[in-house]
């Protein structure tokens, strides 16, 4: 009886210690969405069950090893037991009950996380090797319907965002740890578009991380997420929808950011997946076939619309998307070239 009491107390102490360690010490990333609160609640329940069962098993094993060990001078084995119907019934019924209950709260949590808000704003997310593009539908002050593209995902706080996920090549996965929810992104067109609903609840800067191995640049498939106040979001969107009325080179920088060029091309001389743009214009470039060309206006233009035509030595073909002449207008392409030219010398 005294053994039962001691083991009971030790199990309670170990459960509390382990449970608090798992739930209170920030093992999970910060919570930044409504869905994260719901999901973490479910996580914490599981953490407490894990703490209890680990404590129960470990305390009994360690206690038995120490207290019931064969002491000096003792001979023979312990008492053998065979069968115990009451115990067997208990340890069958109790786990079945726990598992069924967990299935119920799991289902409730899932339906909670997927709850649809008719007021949700829609963002089309385009994933490709190895960048992200986010597209918003906007109606301008003049009543014109237009699309805004960005390489940063800007979301208003406390409003549900419905992300429609498109892949332009292979399977990717949309994941922001602070939002908790995650969704695979499938290629194959409209039929395979998947949806994800997120209600951010904390202003801040986060990172979308591709969570599906998608090729050699998978590790670099990151994008910034900004959660801002509703008013700030609206003014950002209005500003983006306006025509670019800066100089050609400045507009070029804007398109380079918007269309994800800078994910692979640095502006500071470091080599990424593609060559740097710094000091590129007007200089000699060695190609994989051993020949050398000068990076003039035409070379840059061709490199954007037909990237496989001339591959720079040390770099891989088929890495750069080959549909920029469809994505971008002629003016936008010329402005990007003007921007690269401004970085020459
Ligand atoms: Cu996209 Cu990994």
Strand order of the largest sheet: 3-2-1-5-8
The third-level CATH topology of the largest domain is: Immunoglobulin-like
CATH class identity of the largest domain: Mainly Beta
The rounded Rg comes to 29 Å
Q: Could you tell me the strand content as a percent range?
A: 15-25%
Summarize this structure briefly.
With 345 residues, this protein is an alpha+beta fold. It has helices spanning 2-24, 34-67, 85-113, 230-241, 248-258, 297-305, 324-327, 330-342; strands at 121-128, 131-139, 145-150, 153-156, 161-167, 172-175, 182-185, 194-198, 204-210, 222-228, 284-286, 292-294. Helix 1 (2-24) packs antiparallel against helix 2, helix 2 (34-67) runs antiparallel to helix 3 (85-113) and helix 6 crosses helix 8.
Please give a structural write-up.
The chain has 345 residues and is α+β, with helices and mostly antiparallel strands. It has 3 domains: 2-65 and 85-113; 121-241, Immunoglobulin-like; 248-342, Orthogonal Bundle (Cytochrome Bc1 Complex, Chain D, domain 2), CATH 1.10.760.10. It has helices at residues 2-24, 34-67, 85-113, 230-241, 248-258, 297-305, 324-327, 330-342; strands at residues 121-128, 131-139, 145-150, 153-156, 161-167, 172-175, 182-185, 194-198, 204-210, 222-228, 284-286, 292-294. The strands form 3 sheets. The protein has a 5-stranded mixed beta sheet, covered by helices on one side. A 5-stranded mixed beta sheet has the order 4-10-9-6-7, with helices on one face. A two-stranded antiparallel ribbon has the order 11-12. Strand 11 (284-286) and strand 12 (292-294) form a beta hairpin. Helix 2 (34-67) packs antiparallel against helix 3, helix 5 (248-258) crosses helix 8 and helix 6 packs across helix 8. The longest helix is centred in the N-terminal third of the chain and has 34 residues, at 34-67. The model has no long low-confidence stretch (mean pLDDT 87). Residues 127, 130, 172, 210, 212-214, 218, 221 line the site of dinuclear copper ion.
């Amino acid at each position: 009886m005294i053994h039962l009491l001691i083991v009971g107390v030790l199990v309670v102490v170990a459960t509390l210690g382990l449970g608090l360690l798992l739930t209170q010490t920030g093992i999970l990333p910060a919570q930044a969405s409504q869905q994260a609160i719901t999901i973490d609640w479910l996580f914490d329940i599981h953490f407490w069950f894990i703490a209890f069962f680990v404590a129960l098993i470990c305390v009994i094993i360690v206690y038995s090893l120490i207290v019931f060990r064969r002491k000096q001078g003792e001979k023979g084995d312990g008492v053998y037991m065979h069968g115990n119907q009451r115990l067997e019934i208990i340890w069958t019924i109790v786990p079945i009950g726990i598992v069924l209950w967990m299935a119920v709260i799991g289902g409730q949590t899932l339906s909670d996380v997927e709850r649809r808000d008719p007021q949700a704003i829609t963002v089309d997310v385009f994933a490709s090797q190895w960048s992200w593009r986010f597209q918003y539908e906007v109606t301008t002050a003049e009543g014109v319907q237009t699309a805004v593209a960005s390489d940063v995902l800007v979301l208003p706080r406390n409003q549900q965002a419905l992300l429609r996920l498109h892949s332009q090549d292979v399977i990717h996965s949309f994941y922001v740890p602070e939002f908790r929810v995650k969704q695979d992104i499938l290629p194959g067109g409209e039929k395979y578009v998947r949806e994800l609903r997120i209600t951010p609840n904390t202003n801040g800067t986060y990172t979308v991380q591709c969570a599906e191995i998608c090729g050699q640049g998978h590790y670099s498939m990151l994008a910034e997420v900004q959660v801002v106040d509703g008013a700030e979001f609206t003014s950002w969107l209005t500003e983006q929808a306006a025509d670019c009325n800066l100089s050609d080179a400045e507009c070029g920088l804007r398109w380079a950011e918007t269309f994800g060029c800078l994910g692979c091309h640095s502006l500071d001389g470091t080599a990424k997946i593609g060559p740097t743009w710094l000091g590129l214009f007007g200089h000699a470039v060695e190609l994989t076939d051993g020949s050398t060309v000068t990076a003039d206006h035409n070379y840059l233009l061709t490199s954007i619309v037909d990237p496989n035509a001339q591959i720079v030595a040390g770099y891989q073909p088929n890495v750069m998307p080959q549909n920029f002449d469809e994505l971008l207008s002629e003016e936008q392409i010329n402005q990007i070239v003007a921007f690269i030219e401004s970085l020459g010398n």
